[in-house]
Amino acid sequence: MDIRQQLFNAVYTLGQHQEIKNITVNDILQEASVSRGSFYKYFADKYDVINCYYQESMTEIFKDCHEYTWEGIFTKSLTYLKSHQAFFKMTFQDTGQNSFTDFFRSELVREFSNTIIIHSTHQSLSTDEQKALHFYVDGFVSYIRRWALTDMRQPTTELGHDLHLFMPELLCRIQLNLRH
């Protein structure tokens, strides 16, 4: 296994039991059995490795999303989060700078914007569509965070449906050319 993957595995393992903000580089090194020099060969600090891990998660969440409807994209995302429930419950506890909550919010805006631009006739979002998207993503993340912190009791398909139901009409009117 390569060193980067060992470090990602360490972040994941540690993140299941303690808040990300409390994890130190030393904790990561000890869990990964990696030297400090090897760590700094790949990452600048703990936030760098954690953000790279988050990015890997987002890549996995949105992989093949062109094959889904909006509701399918939401359900697929929720299913991924639920399959790593302990980790995401801990990561959603942090808020503010360098938190997963803020990272997730900015990535969703980017991913949803890209989905619209790539899979519709839109070459860009209008100012009103951008506002609607930001408004929606803020609520989306808040709802997902609450769901994660309360043990993800609502079934993913039901929550995916709810999230689609509450999508602003301005965004729903954009026809996507998705496979399913």
How is this fold's topology laid out?
Blueprint: H1 3-15, H2 25-32, H3 36-42, H4 46-62, H5 70-83, H6 85-91, H7 100-118, H8 127-149, H9 156-165, H10 169-172
Structural write-up:
The protein is mainly α and 180 residues long. Helix 1 (3-15) packs across helix 4 and helix 4 runs parallel beside helix 7 (100-118). The mean pLDDT is 93. The chain folds into two domains: 1-63, Orthogonal Bundle (Tetracycline Repressor, domain 2), CATH 1.10.357.10; 65-180, Tetracycline Repressor, domain 2 (Orthogonal Bundle), CATH 1.10.357.10. Helices cover 68% and strands 0% of the residues. Keywords: DNA-binding. This is TetR/AcrR family transcriptional regulator. Residues 24-43 bind DNA.
Shape verdict? elongated
Radius of gyration: 17 Å
* Alpha-carbon distance between the two ends: 36 Å
pLDDT < 50 stretches? none
Total of DSSP H or I helical runs spanning 4+ residues: 10
| Number of self-contained structural domains | 2
Key descriptive features of the protein:
180 residues; mainly alpha; TetR_C_Firmicutes; DNA-binding; Tetracycline Repressor, domain 2
Please summarize what this structure is.
InterPro entries: Homeodomain-like_sf, HTH-type_Tx_Regulator, HTH_TetR, TetR_C_Firmicutes. With 180 residues, the protein is mainly alpha-helical.
